[in-house]
Write a structure and sequence with these properties.
single chain, 257 residues, alpha/beta, Rossmann fold, Dihydroorotate dehydrogenase B (pyrk subunit), domain 3, 7-stranded antiparallel sheet, globular, binds flavin-adenine dinucleotide, binds FE2/S2 (inorganic) cluster
Length: 257
């Protein structure tokens, strides 16, 4: 784990509310695995005090990497105002990422909703030489369908669902899973909690391996404050910290509320 100041190379709006920020750190590129996250100080003063966590979205051999984020509140609004050449104080890479490649010849199905697609692209970059991958991208509307072209450039098949039917299948991204059941699958998901819960139930009903990358509110990011704890299954109620034991978990481990 590294705490360092990193130069911003670019910070561009890619869709309403969504931004991609490119940064330069050969060290982070060299040491990160897909699903790990960075804890970023978004302001130079104490407002907001706490860092904000973001998954690593993509890496390049040149030592550059990207985060993809949605503006949802004060911290992400501040991040969206940052300019090229400014520096960010970054802690990471943190946490445990996705376990891959999967056993046998299973097709890896990556399922992302909204900003949940962010860490799945890094996974695709690392895994597409090793296994067949299909990506399912979901959003409420067409605007929220992100990274379709980027996955296609890697030669990966992409299927899309929007809740309002403005692009692809009309309905939930989880609807698209049924059509894939004829082949042997391993699922990797990131997105809103209700989506992850549905995917987890689906995978347990069909006996599929499924890893989910969870988002919980974080303070320290390094296992000290217990602020990010989630309930997991066990003989009595047990908790795990998203920042240390996660953010990626086996779906069957999670006690979904
Ligand atoms: C491991 C991890 C990886 C993440 N990766 C990404 C990513 O790649 N791209 C991205 O856009 N976002 C990601 N997030 C979520 C991101 O950290 C939050 O959206 C961000 O911290 C919000 O900060 P804010 O100050 O703008 O919002 P706040 O003002 O703090 O909150 C605004 C709203 O967002 C909700 N919110 C805030 N933080 C979280 C959170 N951690 N989980 C769920 N809801 C939250 C609040 O409940 C509130 O409704 C990740 C979170 C975690 C834990
Ligand atoms: S954020 Fe402090 S223990 Fe996870």
């Amino acid at each position: 784990m590294l705490q360092t100041k990193i130069k911003i190379l670019a910070n561009k709006k890619i869709a309403p509310e969504y931004y991609k920020m490119a940064l330069e750190s050969p060290e982070i590129v060299r040491t990160s695995t897909p699903g790990q996250f960075l804890h970023i100080r978004v302001s130079n003063n104490s407002e907001p005090l706490l860092r904000r966590p973001f998954g690593i979205h993509s890496i390049k051999d040149t030592g550059e990497f990207e985060i993809l984020y949605r503006v949802v509140g004060k911290g992400t609004a501040l991040l969206s105002k940052k300019k090229a050449e400014e520096e960010l104080d970054v802690l990471g890479p943190l946490g445990n990422g996705f376990k891959f490649p999967v056993a046998g010849n299973e097709t890896m199905v990556l399922i992302g909703g909204g900003a949940g697609i962010a860490p799945l692209f890094f996974l695709a970059q690392k895994a597409h030489h090793l296994r067949q991958i299909i990506v399912l991208i979901g959003g409420k509307t067409k605007d929220q369908v992100l990274c379709e072209e980027e996955f296609k450039k890697l030669g990966i098949e992409v299927r899309i669902a929007t809740e309002d039917g403005s692009y692809g299948h009309k309905g939930l991204v989880t609807d698209l899973l049924n059509a894939l059941l004829h082949t042997s699958l391993s699922i990797f998901a990131c997105g809103p909690l209700p989506m992850q819960k549905r995917i987890s139930i689906f995978s347990s009903e069909h006996n599929l391996s499924c890893q989910v990358s969870l988002e919980s509110r974080m303070a320290c990011g390094i296992g000290a404050c217990l602020g990010c704890a989630i309930k997991v299954k066990g003989e009595s109620t047990t908790y795990k910290r998203v920042c240390i034991e996660g953010p990626v978990f086996e779906a069957k481990e999670i006690m979904w509320e």
